[in-house]
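lol forgot to send this yesterday, sorry. struct tokens for the thing we talked abt
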């Protein structure tokens, strides 16, 4: 995929040219470029966007390189405050479609940013409509996308207008074409999608209804609705998710599809009654925004090699362990994507099925029809599968069926809740799986967490000493960080429009992989505890999650604060 997208003309800079430029400037290595190219093909984006997404270069630095090659001035739109009167020169829909923004004016010259400088038609249209000269600047697709947010008013301000419109409508003053509650819910979904939120929480309190977005794993309160609108919002969401609107005292689950710009995405809805009303959590499931490439999830080369060796075995278990929201399912989907070939039969039992995978038989758990993990797994083994994925091992019966399936010629993938890789083994024993079965069936265990990535658009390095951190960090972490050094270089995000001033943009995994060697199997048979197993695994070269996290800190991918937050 080339630098330009969506146009019929020849590309400005194709992938081969881009590779040549970046290698000559020593901006990326050949392996890194190839990795970006592979991800670009998988996610349907340009290689330039993939390079930024992987954190290989900051968006503004790549933009400057491309602008220099195109012999054009570059503009970093994340640093521009665009006057509203300039935005109005190009209608919002046209700006979205044409990827162009008017960002400044000097006398009779309009300064226009575009990621497609060869789009001469829009330049002529701007000249004709304004009777002004136009000076074109190159901006990256990400920069254009961020600037287009300026068309939007603040969420609180827009909600205030909608709420006032609803009040006016109730009083008979207005009769809008689109009912205000419908617009309110649509705006809520739109803003959540634009801000990369994975979940929307609508949680009624005594006198108000705070709305929070979960972005990169952290909840942020974005707006507060009046309590008298709760019932209307709940009813609207129930209608969209095809749930019972007359039921207020029982939990309900549903799903609907929503659309924003050119992408459709699923929204999973959970409603539960609490003391102050009905609480709603909506999860946004966008396939385009998720990458299931193992190479992009954060595995080190050493760990990825061990994982691929386990995947190559025809039978046995691969377990992914960690708390809720640690990326376990994404890891298993990444494995399935590699294993999913025409010569194998793959079946899954999931709760819920989050993403459809072509060629894989995916079964949704349904307690109403007694289709549980256990019953579904029993049905799957009668379907002549080669590979089985069980969404979660959560009870004795499921654990024993899964282990026996792994012993009888099937490759079984599953997840478990545990603190780390080693504690998975006692968990299986607690589920009444015999030690010899655990030792024989399990190939490999992945322990994982998700940490927020430092925003590459505002990342800055800084030097620090032991004295600076000794009061903030535990001794073992100080030792891991400094070893025999007196000073180290760390990174942080200063905050910019791209990351909503948080300093973080996106997430990456930190991992540990426990391979069941003969020595580990002997410890299991001898009923060794998790600590003994972990110590032996470390002797044999296992990198702990916290050590993997420290490596990512030194590489500028995350911060020490994030490592502490997810591993404490």
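and heres what i got for the seq, position by position
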């Amino acid at each position: 995929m080339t630098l330009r997208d969506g146009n019929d003309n020849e590309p400005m800079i194709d992938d081969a040219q881009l590779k040549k430029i970046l290698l000559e400037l020593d901006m990326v290595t050949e392996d890194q470029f190839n990795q970006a190219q592979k991800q670009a093909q998988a996610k349907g984006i340009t290689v330039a966007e993939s390079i930024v997404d992987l954190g290989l270069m900051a968006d503004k630095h790549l933009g400057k390189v491309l602008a220099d090659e195109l012999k054009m001035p570059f503009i970093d739109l994340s640093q521009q405050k665009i006057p509203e009167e300039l935005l109005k020169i190009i209608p919002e829909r046209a700006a979205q479609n044409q990827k162009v923004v008017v960002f400044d004016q000097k006398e009779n010259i309009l300064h226009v940013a575009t990621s497609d400088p060869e789009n001469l038609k829009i330049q002529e249209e701007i000249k004709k409509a304004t009777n002004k000269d136009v000076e074109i600047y190159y901006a990256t697709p990400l920069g254009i996308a961020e600037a287009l947010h300026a068309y939007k008013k603040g969420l609180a301000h827009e909600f205030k207008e909608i709420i006032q419109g609803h009040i006016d409508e109730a009083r008979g003053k207005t009769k809008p074409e689109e009912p205000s509650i419908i617009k309110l819910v649509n705006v809520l979904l739109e803003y959540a999608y634009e801000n990369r939120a994975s979940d929307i929480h609508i949680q009624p309190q005594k006198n108000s209804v705070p709305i929070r977005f979960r972005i990169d794993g952290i909840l942020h309160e974005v707006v507060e609705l009046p309590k008298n609108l709760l019932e209307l919002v709940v009813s609207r969401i129930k209608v969209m998710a095809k749930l019972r609107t007359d039921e207020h005292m029982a939990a309900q689950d549903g799903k609907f599809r929503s659309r924003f710009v050119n992408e459709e995405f699923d929204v999973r809805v959970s409603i539960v009654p609490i003391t102050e009303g009905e609480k709603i959590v909506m999860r946004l499931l966008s396939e385009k925004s998720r990458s299931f490439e193992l190479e992009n999830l954060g595995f080190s080369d050493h760990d990825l090699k061990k994982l691929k060796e386990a995947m190559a075995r025809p039978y046995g278990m691969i377990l992914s362990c960690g708390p809720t929201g640690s990326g376990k399912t994404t890891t298993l989907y990444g494995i399935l994507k590699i294993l999913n070939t025409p010569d194998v039969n793959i079946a899954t039992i999931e709760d819920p099925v989050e993403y459809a995978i072509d060629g894989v038989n995916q079964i949704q758990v349904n307690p109403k029809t007694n289709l549980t993990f256990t019953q579904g797994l029993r049905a799957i083994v009668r379907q002549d599968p080669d590979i089985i994925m069980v969404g979660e091992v959560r009870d004795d019966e499921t654990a024993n069926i899964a282990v026996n399936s792994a012993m009888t010629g099937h490759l079984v993938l599953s997840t478990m809740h545990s603190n780390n890789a080693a504690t998975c083994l006692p968990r299986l024993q607690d589920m009444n799986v015999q030690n010899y079965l655990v030792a024989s069936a399990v190939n490999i265990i992945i322990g994982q967490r998700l940490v927020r990535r430092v925003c590459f658009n505002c990342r800055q390095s800084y030097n620090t000493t032991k004295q600076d951190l000794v009061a903030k960090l535990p001794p073992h972490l100080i030792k891991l960080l400094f070893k025999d050094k007196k000073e180290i270089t760390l990174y942080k995000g200063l905050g910019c429009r791209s990351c909503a001033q948080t300093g973080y943009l996106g997430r990456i995994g930190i991992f540990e992989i426990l391979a069941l060697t003969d020595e580990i199997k002997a410890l299991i048979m001898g009923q060794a505890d998790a600590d003994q197993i972990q110590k032996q695994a470390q002797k044999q070269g296992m990198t702990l999650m916290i050590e993997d996290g420290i490596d990512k800190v030194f590489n500028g991918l995350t911060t020490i604060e994030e490592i502490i937050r997810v591993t404490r």
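The radius of gyration is 26 Å. anyway ping me if u want another try
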